């Protein structure tokens, strides 16, 4: 399948027959934006060779906004933002598939494209409609998540969706967001912020140190991440089934 590093313009082969309704909208997605690393690899493995272009994201809203500005010249019609997220509410457990109705950054809000969002919810009966919060740092403590939910009204949290949604929507792109919960709101995480550098890159040694310093929290993080990545792969395979060549 095409990836950002080797194909600047998305190419999709024709399917065996005409698609209608939600399937037509989803098959018309030009690009999938996903955080680099394990999330990116999961998406690449899930999508068929004739699927949409996959673009890796650095971690954090500043990096996401810079990338979005550079992507506005692509003249895409539809874009899917995907990956994992954290839960801010007890009834959204690990493995929950959330389709964003919109995203907030603490002060401002942006709505996802309603038609594309509806198509995703129709295609994925197990998914739930959620409101996402984008933050500048990982919310690692239960108290932080509780406070964020109370002030934002969001059910899930990530670090990239809002600026991507804001910039691409302003450029006339229909944007949808689909994320899978990888950590709940009832357990603390290791301090992942110390493992992310200023360029939004995850530092493996710093991450390993945090996992060693907080083994129980580290175990829960790894277990939740593996489960959410499996669900992410299964979900994308459902949305983008392989088509005959």
How would you characterize this protein structure?
- 38% of the residues lie in helices and 21% in strands.
- With 245 residues, the chain is of the alpha/beta class.
- Helix 1 packs across helix 4, helix 3 runs parallel beside helix 6 (161-170) and helix 7 crosses helix 8 (215-239).
- The protein has one domain (21-189, 225-239): Nucleoside phosphorylase domain (Rossmann fold).
- The protein is globular and about 50 Å long.
- It has helices spanning 21-27, 38-46, 61-71, 114-123, 142-152, 161-170, 204-213, 215-239, and strands at 31-35, 53-57, 78-87, 97-104, 109-111, 128-134, 156-158, 174-183.
- Mean pLDDT is 88; it is low at 2-18.
- Strand 4 and strand 5 form a beta hairpin.
The gist of it:
The protein is 38% helix and 21% strand. By secondary structure, it is of the alpha/beta class.
What tags apply to this protein structure?
245 residues; alpha/beta; Rossmann fold; 8 strands; 21% strand
